[in-house]
């Protein structure tokens, strides 16, 4: 018979040293964006079911946009919101049961998205086109009838992590944040090992906390296969016994800590590769690092906010304060 068991989540705030960045704040335009979004949902209410509306509102996509882009202006925030709405649509439509039921036509959807994305990337006159284009590319990878990429079942942590980096939807957000802030770093610099390490560790610091935070939701829905916590319990190379959820949660915390240490080392390596006296490049590197950290922090803020019922991690303020999670097993 199912029972509720309380587990100790690793304290992600401590693992990511968030106390060293006390000035992070959600974008002040969030209330205005939320009002616009609810007005939009009211206008399309006749075209969606009550369940779909509840799911869309519960995801708190305006908060997601405002958290990931704390320095964006209102038009830029609207771009983010467009992108996240598309991603939520992709996730819902790529559900295996929906795919098997034939409840969508992938080619029609992709063709529609592609008709809106003929401009060069980040054309400031039509800012949403590049994100629509990227969402279309992401959708092509996700839909089960065309590819097994998203529904990849891993039994080894290393292969799972490599795969997770490919499908996490944060790549366009990082690129857009870099463009929005007009960071002046050449493609050659961004392709050096230090910067590639910065990007990869940033992706890990978004994907792996998401695995921890979403494990409760996925476990309750029987969809916890594609999650580091679950993979740790089946990988024979990992010292975690099958079914030992607490040990698997602890292991995920270790991987997050390792990723953050790598991020810090890559930052030092990136700074060290600048020429002596090149203060301009050094300043741009620090701005880029700051953008990455705000993206990492925004991800946590959005996912654990009590308004984000998409994850509904903590049942009480006491659970949130102690990073405790109650899971039905």
Task: Provide structural commentary.
It is a single chain. The chain is mainly α and 329 residues long. The protein has two domains: 26-151, no CATH class; 154-311, Orthogonal Bundle (Farnesyl Diphosphate Synthase). The chain contains 16 helices and two strands. The chain has helices spanning 12-15, 30-43, 50-58, 61-68, 74-93, 96-100, 106-114, 128-142, 157-167, 171-180, 187-190, 193-220, 228-232, 245-272, 279-304, 317-322; strands spanning 4-8, 324-328. A two-stranded antiparallel sheet has the order 1-2. Helix 10 (171-180) crosses helix 15 and helix 12 packs parallel to helix 15. Its cofactor is Mg(2+). This is Terpene synthase. Keywords: Lyase, Magnesium, Metal-binding.
List the helices and strands and how they pair.
Layout: E1 4-8, H1 12-15, H2 30-43, H3 50-58, H4 61-68, H5 74-93, H6 96-100, H7 106-114, H8 128-142, H9 157-167, H10 171-180, H11 187-190, H12 193-220, H13 228-232, H14 245-272, H15 279-304, H16 317-322, E2 324-328
Antiparallel strand pairs: 1-2
Helix pairs in contact: 2-4, 4-5, 4-15, 5-8, 7-8, 10-15, 12-14, 12-15
């Amino acid at each position: 018979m199912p029972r509720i068991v309380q587990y100790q989540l690793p304290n992600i705030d401590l693992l990511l040293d968030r106390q060293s960045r006390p000035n992070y704040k959600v974008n002040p335009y969030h209330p205005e964006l939320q009002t616009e979004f609810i007005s939009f949902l009211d206008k399309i209410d006749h075209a969606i079911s009550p369940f779909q509306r509840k799911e869309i509102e519960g995801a708190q996509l305006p908060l997601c946009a405002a958290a990931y882009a704390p320095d964006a202006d209102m038009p830029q925030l609207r771009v983010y919101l467009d992108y996240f709405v598309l991603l939520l649509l992709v996730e819902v439509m790529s559900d295996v049961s929906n795919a098997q039921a034939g409840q969508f036509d992938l080619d029609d959807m992709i063709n529609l998205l592609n008709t809106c994305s003929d401009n060069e990337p980040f054309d400031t006159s039509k800012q949403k086109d590049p994100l629509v284009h990227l969402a279309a590319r992401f959708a092509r990878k996700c839909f089960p009838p065309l590819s097994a990429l998203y529904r990849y079942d891993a039994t080894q942590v290393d292969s799972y992590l490599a795969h997770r980096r490919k499908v996490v939807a944060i790549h366009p957000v990082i690129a857009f944040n870099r463009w929005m802030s007009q960071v002046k770093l050449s493609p050659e610099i961004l392709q050096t090992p230090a910067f590639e390490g910065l990007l990869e560790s940033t992706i890990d610091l978004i994907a792996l906390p998401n695995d921890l935070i979403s494990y409760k939701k996925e476990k309750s829905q029987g969809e916890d296969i594609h999650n580091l916590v679950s993979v740790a319990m089946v990988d024979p190379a990992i010292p975690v016994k099958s079914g030992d959820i607490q040990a698997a949660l602890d292991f995920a915390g270790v991987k997050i800590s390792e990723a953050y240490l790598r991020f810090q080392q890559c930052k030092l390596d990136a700074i060290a590769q600048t020429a002596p006296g090149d203060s301009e490049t050094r300043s741009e590197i620090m701005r880029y690092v700051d953008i990455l950290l705000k993206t990492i922090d925004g991800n946590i803020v959005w996912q654990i906010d009590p308004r984000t019922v998409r994850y509904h991690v903590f049942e009480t303020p006491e659970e949130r304060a102690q990073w405790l999670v109650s899971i039905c097993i």
